[in-house]
Design goal:
The chain is an all-alpha fold and about 230 residues long. It contains ten helices and no strands. The longest helix is centred in the middle third of the chain and has 29 residues. The chain starts with 10 loop residues before the first helix and ends with a helix.
Length: about 230
């Protein structure tokens, strides 16, 4: 028997969330580039991404403010469950990622992740901005969409579908911008690299029963990545 989520997203929030997800993936990048061109400005990639993340963060907070408040109440009532869920989920993420590294090296020893390379270059040029973006802005915004919108509402009636949609689309959104730059095998390997995080984040959400568990886990994963990036500079 599946474990029920204590807070179910309202239908209006779900609909607005789908709209936000489509807007941010399809229209927002082009709108930002167009506006900067009108102003005759050429922002650095890190600045453009930082603004993109900030807009998504603020939009998510506004749209899901009631949902977040109810989820916060759940987190405050059971902090031990939240932190233990984050710890276990991080272990799942680490184990799955470690095995995946060996699989990727076996399939394609020369493979490298283009999204990671892009983020690494932006972090090297503007570390503080990227640190704030990836650690503070990205986790809440992405979790509210991929675990809130794409998991919460669907999990209520079709839990298997909720897992598949949330994990699959979470992986795809990180690599869809690089279609045509990967070989077919490279695209598959890049897709696989994000599956452990998606699985662990969904697990943390279900076990803890509050969206703040995957938000904390996502924050931890990104924080470690930024620290590693800083130490390797």
């Amino acid at each position: 028997m599946k474990k029920k989520l204590p807070v179910i997203m309202r239908q209006k929030e779900f609909e607005y969330g789908i709209g936000l997800l489509i807007f941010q993936q399809v229209f927002l990048p082009a709108i930002l580039v167009f506006l900067f061109s009108l102003l005759s400005l050429t922002p650095a990639a890190a600045e453009l991404n930082g603004l993109y993340f900030f807009i998504n963060f603020i939009s998510a907070l506004i749209i899901f403010r009631n949902f977040l408040w109810e989820e916060l109440g759940e987190a405050v009532e059971k902090p031990n469950l939240v932190f233990s869920s984050v710890a276990i989920a991080f272990g799942i993420y680490y184990i799955l990622s470690s095995y995946l590294v060996y699989l990727i090296q076996w399939l394609d020893p020369e493979f490298f992740n283009l999204n990671d390379a892009s983020i690494g270059a932006m972090t090297e040029s503007q570390f503080a901005l990227m640190a704030v973006s990836t650690v503070l802005l990205v986790p809440p915004a992405e979790e509210l969409l991929f675990r809130g919108v794409l998991f919460n509402k669907i999990y209520e009636k079709k839990p298997v579908l909720a897992w598949i949609l949330s994990v699959t689309l979470f992986s795809l959104v990180h690599i869809v911008g690089y279609i045509g730059e990967y070989s077919p095998l490279g695209f598959l390997l890049a897709f696989l690299q994000y599956l452990p995080a998606g699985i662990a984040l969904c697990f943390a959400y279900v076990r803890a029963g509050t969206i703040f568990a995957p938000i904390l886990l996502h924050t931890a994963i990104n924080t470690i990545a930024i620290i590693l990036e800083f130490t390797m500079r």
